[in-house]
Amino acid sequence: MLRRSFLLGLMAAPLTAPVAVAAVPAVDTKGFHIEDWLGPPTGDLRRDLEHARAANKVLAVFWEATPCVYCDELHVKALRDPTMREYVAQRFHSVRYDRLGKGPLIDFNGAERSERDTALAHRVLGTPTIEFRLADAREVMRVPGYLGFNLLRSSFEYVDEGGYRQAGFAKWLQQRPR
Description:
By secondary structure, the protein is of the alpha+beta class. It has helices spanning 2-12, 45-54, 69-76, 82-91, 115-121, 149-160, 169-175; strands at residues 58-64, 92-98, 104-106, 112-114, 129-133, 139-144.
């Protein structure tokens, strides 16, 4: 009986039009997904922050690695939605750094270390991790890992709408109108 009710409910559910999805992004020589909304990393987080500040945007630092199954999920699934891509591009200055990289990276405080050591200094333990930084370099939100489309979108909205001023992320999600 329960199965029949479930199946009848599925048949009665309204059909929705297919959602337009952006093509799967190409991969660069290091294995990272190429995204048109990701800004070129400068190798200096202070300059990345200055670019964000000049554009009146929040800095979103994506820490990724290759190979990384969850980084692939992030780019191949959650970030394929055109509205998500547009939202991120319009409101955030996003850059990506290699969580395991050996290349030099200057931190917000001027310390020059490898990308790997800078990631460790930022307590980035897994990938993907997204740090959201305001114009004063203060971190207001961190996404540690792959969340899926809905929570990822909510994370960006939480930062963009200033939800961090009122409550933690979980409480903000509970309080926001649906």
